[in-house]
């Protein structure tokens, strides 16, 4: 399996972490944002969306991170594990959390922080409020369960914890969200390789920011 990824991409890290949990061996192909590898014709032929992560299995490309996580769990998770539970209702909850991550939380983070980080623009208050509302929704979800889709770790936790790690790196104030903070610490403990991979990403992000700032 070829995995096109970038370690700075939270969805890419979610795939790498689930792959580690399932003891999978990917053929890793890192795409460099600075070189704009993701828009080269060869990659766009594989994935017209030219996004990472992209998983290629037997010549078939799977492009959305939620779809990749579900495929890996369905195909490789041992029987009896909870990564993607067999019960249709529980799966629906996992699916909902994955859709919330990509359609709401990740989008709010991207919209608010991208102009600030990449263009040094003035933060937009309405975008900040939307982000606050999204984090509050996640906090509400976690009020009565250990993980985002119940009391067992699922692929939705892999997806969301990597996205929330962006907020930590960007110094978003999480102190009002006790349930999110408890869950985040719990995921750090139970997801193998999380701390090491996240630290590598943070170090690379800091170096990238230093390079950007040096441009004046």
Give an account of the 3D structure.
Belongs to the GST superfamily. Theta family. The structure is a single chain. The chain is α+β, with helices and mostly antiparallel strands and 216 residues long. It has two domains: 1-78, Glutaredoxin (3-Layer(aba) Sandwich); 86-193, Glutathione S-transferase Yfyf (Class Pi), Chain A, domain 2, CATH 1.20.1050. The chain is built from eight helices and four strands; from the N terminus they run E-H-E-H-E-E-H-H-H-H-H-H. Strands 2-1-3-4 form a four-stranded mixed β-sheet.
Q: Which structural class fits the helix and strand makeup?
A: alpha+beta
Low-confidence parts lasting 5 or more residues at pLDDT below 50?
none
Which range best describes the helical content: under 10%, 10-25%, 25-40%, 40-55%, 55-70% or over 70%? 55-70%
CATH architecture of the largest domain: Up-down Bundle
Separate helix tally:
8
Instruction: Describe the global form.
Output: globular
- Major sheet: size, sense and barrel closure? 4 strands, mixed
| Strands, count | 4
N-C termini distance: 41 Å
The CATH C-level class name of the largest domain: Mainly Alpha
InterPro entries: Glutathione-S-Trfase_C-like, Glutathione-S-Trfase_C_sf, Glutathione_S-Trfase, Glutathione_S-Trfase_N, Thioredoxin-like_sf
EC number: 2.5.1.18
GO biological process, one term: glutathione metabolic process
Organism: Anopheles coluzzii
